[in-house]
Amino acid sequence: MTVIVRDLRPEVRADVEAFVRVRRLALPFMVGTPESVLHDLTGSHPDARHRQLLAESDGEVVGTAQVRLAHDSPEPGQGSVNVYVHPERTRRGAGALLLRTGEDHLAAAGATRVYSWVLDEPGNRAFAERHGYRPRRSAHFLRLDLANGPLPPLADPPPGVELRPGADFAADPRPLFALDAETTADEPGDIGTEFTDYDTWLTETWRHPLLDHRLTTVAVVDGVPAAFTAVHTDGATRYATGMTGTARAFRGRGLAKLAKNASLHRARAAGYTEAFTGNDTDNAPMLAINTWFGYGICATEVRYARELG
Q1: Band of the pLDDT at 124, cuts 50, 70, 90?
Q2: Which CATH number does the domain 144-302 belong to among 2.40.100.10, 3.10.310.10, 3.40.50.300, 3.40.630.30?
């Protein structure tokens, strides 16, 4: 068996579909479409040095990797390589070759530390540690049965609070950029993120093909966007929360929970049957909120890191 690694060719539909298929088999808790894969590749900021790699074994795509520099982090030199191999095609060397190719690319781009998410399973963790990676933090994937599971009843917003769809901000999404930037800065994680480039945010976030502007929901207090839940959907049955947060001045009032509940009810009415989200294992407040909604943990990933050089 011969394994090779190459770049995904965006103009070749079979490459894009193979990337989506393998990622779905290896990580069924993420929402992805061919359009989102293409957008991630072609819409990324040039400084991210973004690459999407495919591993082929005798002509069959058996693995993928997403490689990028954290160009929007205040700490330079950080990158990530996330490798996923078809569950029935492991132990052929595809994962190791994808990882090495990604590391070489990041090293040439100036990275000094590489992060990688690894499913919390013995074989996957052993693979990471054999390649010099050490565990850092962990995060849960959570799933909610939207078709059959109960949802908390809808509640009327308190006086002065209005729930609006993200689509209402289509003419001027800058207030949502400011809200996203503030809440993302406070998100637990290894790599800090600073949203300072509005045009990049428009391209990478607001215009992302997965972002559902109708189901994305914003809690507006006296005319000011105060909390939101950003929603990704595949346009068919799968719904995922991309980010849920509240501006610092409005925390402790249940606004994010109010927005997310309204969004979930509308998603069910629109025919979505599965809802996914993810939380850092140390983010107790958000885990409690998602448990209240009826989400259950379906898998855990561990963030590993390795120093280059």
Answers
A1: very high
A2: 3.40.630.30
